[in-house]
Amino acid sequence: MSYLIKNETELRALYGEKSPRADKKVLTRLDKHCRSFIAHSPFLTLATASPELGADCSPKGDAPGFVRVLNDQQLAIPDRPGNNRIDSAVNILANPQVGVLFIIPGVKETLRVNGDAVISVEPELLETMVVNGKKPRSAIVITIREAYIHCAKSLMRSDLWNPEKHLDRKELASMGQILADHMKDGLDSAAYDAEMDSRYRASLY
Q1: Residue 131, in any domain of the structure
Q2: Is 179 among the domain residues?
Q3: Domain annotation covers residue 2
Q4: d(Cα 165, Cα 145) in Å, to the nearest integer?
Q5: What is the mean pLDDT of residues 156-180?
Q6: What is the mean pLDDT of the chain?
Q7: Pairing between strand 43-50 and 97-103?
Q8: Which of 5, 37, 102, 176 has a beta carbon 3.0–4.6 Å from 189's, enabling a disulfide?
């Protein structure tokens, strides 16, 4: 006997019919509520997919308002310095379909945005994204296909914003220890940890 779901018919039989509101709440444009959510969000996750390597999800964060709403169907995400893997950007070149999840600390609901993305280096746009005198190298401009508020159940179950549930970082291995174990190239984990915060802060923008 197989315990794997093989098609949507079996899946619907397992879960039942979806709530009528699940479709009714979906917008094709950013209304005042979506705009307000984006303006208050300092963090998002960006899902992309490569035809060869499959799905990928990348975190993006900055001060609230770092994502620019260009009009009621477009938004722009600055691409700040990272490790130059540029996985999201490479994926977008091959497959423009993306998904974004906006998160606001202390708020149980999230905002989901799906659409098609391009990589822009338009000078006028990048000038609006300057922080500490530095422009992002590019911006991810998304034309929205659908946008909707996602219910609070997942954050309620996780109790994500409860400070009493926050983990003491010392209960996990340090970043240096993890990298040393993963890369096995002789990395001095103690030296890496000692320099990590200052190195990060020097290269945030």
Answers
A1: yes
A2: yes
A3: no
A4: 36
A5: 96
A6: 95
A7: antiparallel
A8: 176
Let me know the angle formed at the C-alpha of 28 by 140 and 35, rounded to the nearest 5 degrees.
65
CA nearest neighbour of 79 among 144, 90, 71: 90
Residues 6+ apart with CB under 8 A from 46: 57, 58, 59, 60, 77, 88, 98, 99, 100, 140
CATH number for position 117 = 2.30.110.10
Q: What is the pLDDT of residues 143-158, one digit of tens each?
A: 999 999 999 999 999 9
CB 38 within 8 A of CB 31: no
- Domain limits for position 112: 15-158
b (16+ CB within 10 A) / e for 36-64? ebbeebbebebbbbbeeeeeeebebebee
- Residues 154, 173, single domain; the answer is no
Contact, 70 vs 129, CB < 8 A? no
* 49 and 120 co-located in one domain: yes
